[in-house]
alpha-L-fucosidase
Amino acid sequence: MLACSTSTASSVSNKKTYEPTWESIDSRPLPAWFDEAKIGIFLHWGVFSVPSFQSEWFWWSLETKNPDALEFMRKNYPPNFTYADFGSQFKAEFYDTDLLADIFKAAGAKYVVLTSKHHEGYTNWPSKYSWNWNSLDLGPKKDLVGELANSIRNRTDLHFGLYHSLFEWFHPLYLQDKNNSFKTNSFTMSKTLPELFEIVNTYKPDVIWSDGEWEAPYQYWNSTEFLAWLYNDSPVKDTVVVNDRWGSGMLCNHGGFYTCSDRYNPGILQKHKWENCMTLDLGSWGYRRVAQFSDIIPIEGLIAEVASTISCGGNILINAGIRSDGRIDPIFEERLRQLGTWLKVNGEAVYSSVPWKFQNDTISKNIWYTSKQSDSEKVVYVFVLNWPAQNILTLGAPQPSSATKVTMLGYYDSFLWNKHSSSGGIDIIFPYIPPSQLPSMWAWVLKLQHLID
């Protein structure tokens, strides 16, 4: 188990001054909106979206002589074509931020995290610290971050956040500091920190999703100094949340919410607030033109990820790679809209829920639990991922009382039940429901009231 406080507030009243130490930084309560939100959308986008081959690490693959990457370039581009030449082809000509905002709202998301800069160093905003390698000077000729931020805020109630890579693979100052064993920090002081201050002051994100931290210690990145400013003096000091990627060895140890690793889903309750950042394309974070249908997570799998994550106290950040022209792939849009349809029925068990004393059932598989306190009574929600055989679901964890009531979210009638003879649990009898009357096509949520606590 991970040990840390899970105390929250809807916004953090900034009466305390935070010092640039982990002890002080980690004492800040996490704003409650983040725990209540549960569902976020992650967007990986950059110059790597032009070749859209292998992954967002394509430039790294080229420089490290990956044979598939080299063969791709040999077949499709002139001999002297460099990665930087992709920049002029990154045009975002169909970038419709109002449409994207509507899709994310329809998906049931409560926050969106857009890539502001990946490890390639290209900034999706007109950064003063990325000359001729930003979205205004090269490629789209527009502020990609600002346009989405405006649409999200004007059309939805979603929180807007930004991903930012601390390092850049091939920046000369970073390589110089690296060669000096990070005893100098020219790159941090002239590039990383100015960019972070710039995006916070300009776009006022409620999430700073840091990455690219693993090669250097937090002291090199001046992470605690930045976070102290963020919590004390920034324009988002009361609402902002951050992750745990602020230096080598920080994962799962320091920061706001923990990510621990990509696609982290421990399957057991965690003591510290955490997030499962995962991908719709199981093979890449960035958009891949060669992705096959089998590479895309089915809606049943996505709902299972949501249920298992929420049950164990996490949020889920669902990633889609965007095409270089600014469009989200139709199959990604379909998955997000399917999830939104499911959440319209079952969101009561997701948003603002808390973990129950059990996460899985003691008898039946593919069951996850959440709970809520309602009118001095605890309500328990049961995520049923597979329709029970013979229409009888046996649960060992819930202990029924004579007054126990069982309903299905989205369905009008109560379910019959019996006390399970051997476990003291409950046998729930599912009625024969015509498909046209099923509240959901993929997974179903039962609401249990008046249990023996």
